[in-house]
Amino acid sequence: MKKHQVTIIDIAKALNISKSTVSRALTGHPNVQPHTRERILEMADAMEYEKNMFSVSLIKRASKTLGIIVPEFSRSFFPQVIIGAQQRAKEAGYNLIISQSDESYETEVANTKVMLSHQVDGVLISMTKETNNYEHFKTFQRKGIPIVFFNRICDEMIVPKVIVDDYEGACSAVEHLIKQGKKRIAHLSGPETLSICKQRKAGYLNTLKKYGIPVNDDLIIHYDLSINKVKIYINYFLNLNPRPDAIFAINDPTAIEAIQLIKEAGLKIPQDIAIVGFSNDFASSLVEPSLTTVEQPIAEIGRVATQLLLDQLDREVADWKAQTVMLKTNLIVRNSS
User: Fold this and answer.
1) For range 298-302, the mean pLDDT
2) pLDDT (0 to 100) of residue 59
3) Are strands 292-295 and 330-332 parallel, antiparallel or unpaired?
4) Domains 8-51 and 166-295 belong to one CATH topology
5) What pLDDT is attached to residue 58?
6) What pLDDT score does 34 carry?
7) At the top level of CATH, which class does the domain 8-51 belong to?
């Protein structure tokens, strides 16, 4: 049998008072006597009453709900960002609706429609690798709903963004490899459409030039971030003559997969080939050998992005500021280099 959902009418009947008084007490209206409010709250608790947040949102013109759209859950990066975002949202009295796009543009568009149907007050967004049309994001702007991009950002839209210093992070990674005596450093990068890939590649290229190492296009590969394809590109590198003596990977999952494949090929890491990743995923310290990586302040990305969203909610639309916050990275040297 379906359980009856307790409403303000049930509470009003139980206490023999008006439903408008119950409503005012439950929404914190000041025009309710303290002893009456106490009676109402006690009865609501006893009857296991739950607020209809949609109805409250119609009254207050705010749902007290934020949305976050991420491209995938296959690695620890985005779940950790969500943890940071959820912590800050909770502190501010907001709930967080979470959706992931599975690296699909069509699913991402559908996710934005879900956010709109739930009447979220604002949205945090990290795009899929396929996204190159931004109309579904611009819908939020047209409706006066603030958005903040993080990690994978849209350069075309003038809105707040949270990024890390991908360029300097890549510079530190490649410089470290060069100082270990490596001279044929390969770069396994991601989609050229993503700004993080562009910045990390730029850091790689400029650091090679800084140390007088010629850029070799044979040592640079872009791929679609599908981990099952890493084997193809690692085998390509291993079959070069001479082969690379180091690999700078776009992220830790790519680097960890490379470590396994290079070990299977009978080569020693870092003696034959050194490996450096990017992000400091949970598994990077557990793989053997442990992975040298560029650490990002992952949870902080979520907290800062949420704060930028809250800042906009406190202002009129005309006063919104398209601030870009860049967080620092830190090279963590482990056994893979």
Assistant:
1) 96
2) 45
3) antiparallel
4) no
5) 44
6) 86
7) mainly alpha
Domain regions of the chain by residue span: 8-51, 63-164+298-327, 166-295
- Please list, residue by residue across 34-65, b when 16 or more beta carbons sit within 10 angstroms of its beta carbon and e when fewer do: eeebebbeebbeeeebeeeeeeebeeeeebeb
The answer to whether 250 touches 189, Cβ cutoff 8 Å, is yes
Tokens of 130: 């396929």
Give residue 208's region: left, alpha or beta (phi > 0; psi -120 to 50). Answer: alpha
The topology (CATH level 3) of 166-295 is: Rossmann fold (3.40.50)
pLDDT digits over 109-165, tens only?
A: 999 999 998 889 999 999 999 999 999 999 998 888 999 999 999 999 999 999 999
302 φ/ψ angles, rounded to the nearest 5 degrees: -65, -40
Which run of H or of E encompasses 89? helix 77-91
> What does the pLDDT look like over 23-39, one tens digit per residue?
888 777 777 888 898 89
Cross-strand partners of 147: 123
Q: Which two tokens stand for residue 264?
A: 């299977």
Between helix 230-238 and helix 252-264 the angle, nearest 10°, is 50
DSSP assignment, residue 256? H
Q: How far is the C-alpha of 271 from the C-alpha of 29, rounded, in Å?
A: 69
Instruction: Outline where DSSP puts E strands in 138-183.
Output: 147-150, 161-164
Q: Which three-class secondary structure state does DSSP give residue 108?
A: helix
CA distance 218 to 164: 28
Helix axes 77-91, 298-313, angle to 10 degrees: 40
* Residue-averaged pLDDT of the chain: 91
Q: Based on the number of CB atoms within 10 Å of its own CB, is 111 exposed (0-12), middle (13-18) or buried (19 or more)?
A: buried
Task: Quickly tell me which residue has 């390509």 as its tokens.
Answer: 236
Q: What topology is assigned to 63-164+298-327 in CATH?
A: Rossmann fold (3.40.50)
- What's the pLDDT at 23? 82
CA angle 148, 149, 154 (to 5 degrees): 125
pLDDT in tens, 168-213: 999 999 999 999 999 999 999 999 989 999 999 999 999 999 999 9
Phi/psi for 42 (5° steps) reads -65, -45
For the residues 275-300, what does the mean pLDDT come to? 96
